[in-house]
Specification:
The structure is a single chain. The chain has 354 residues and is α+β, with helices and mostly antiparallel strands. The protein has 2 domains: 205 residues, BirA Bifunctional Protein, domain 2 (2-Layer Sandwich), CATH 3.30.930.20; 122 residues, At1g16640 B3 domain, CATH 2.40.330.10. The longest helix has 21 residues. The protein is built from 11 helices and 15 strands. The strands form 2 sheets. Strands 1, 2, 3, 4, 5, 6, 7 and 8 form an 8-stranded antiparallel β-sheet that branches. The two termini are 33 Å apart. The chain is elongated and about 65 Å long. It is 31% helix and 29% strand.
Length: 354
Amino acid sequence: MPVFSAFGWAEEANALKYALAQLQTFIDLLYLRLPVDIRGEFQTHGLSQENQNAYLATDDSYDAGAYVAFNARPMSLEVQLGIVGHDLLSKGLAAVNKDIAAVHHVFAQLDPNWMLRVQQTQVNSETGERAHHLDLFKDSVNNLTVEQAREIFERAAYLNEEDKWATPVYLSLRMPSERVASMGYAIIDISADLVSALMPVLRLFTGKKPKKTRTVRPSTKTSRRVDADDESPAGETAITGSIKSIADNFNYVAELRPLHIRRGFINLTPAHWPFFAVSNRTETRGVTVVFEGRQDKTCSVWRLQPDDQARIVLGPQVHEWLEENFANSDAIQVSVRRLDNDEIRITLGIPDQA
């Protein structure tokens, strides 16, 4: 993704400034990319100029509860889960200490590259500001034993109940800037996977349970690939799965896979991208998606590298509709139209009804 191409320019102030200016786009796209149940656990997302990062937050402010931050550094991108809110820490640490063995198991499932830090900070009684005092633990999750977990979290819970102390918990992972810059738009998928990996730890403290995956009920409607004769006027050569009229509109029937439904996207083809491109440098294009008489204006179309494949990335409303109405190998009709004001409108439906 272009937002991270500047991270490789170490110690360049302009490069960091450029990257920060683009992080808002990154976090907006990432938020839409997350599964619906995970999006529901974050009340806000945005960009913090002060902290030089983009974030997802469980409360209406960055540090009121917990957050997942993406910290832009000249030589790396750091992904950090922070459990920082006093009330959340009090309730969360009490819950954690009820079953240390289970808690240790959750941490043990993480990649060893994740670093766990349990910090003891001193709270200024007048300003409420926190100052670092010492680290109760700072090491790879791979090096955390059950005995250490019990000692650390019991001590953290005890200290956190005193007014002068706070014991925030952090998990962090760093990726080299050159590697991140080379990922292109794949960084969105990778970041979404990292957030998903952190959710079991976050839920230890919030007490929330993951929502059960919906069972897709068999539809009485037949989801089938549209026959050429059904879609083409008499005398016109049928072009199923490609552009019919690049000037105004085209129709396409896509086949859905479990990953498409879970993540909320529909793949088109490289032949479709020119329809959406404003210029040769266009990477994304906002679109309106219509489904069952409703509209979702938070959708977009991405250009994927290296072959310029077009991908429709769905907003929350239409993503939920896709999960409820389609299953693996189902076909979905995609009807795309350019309006007079240059807005692009995409209508989705079952092929024989679109």
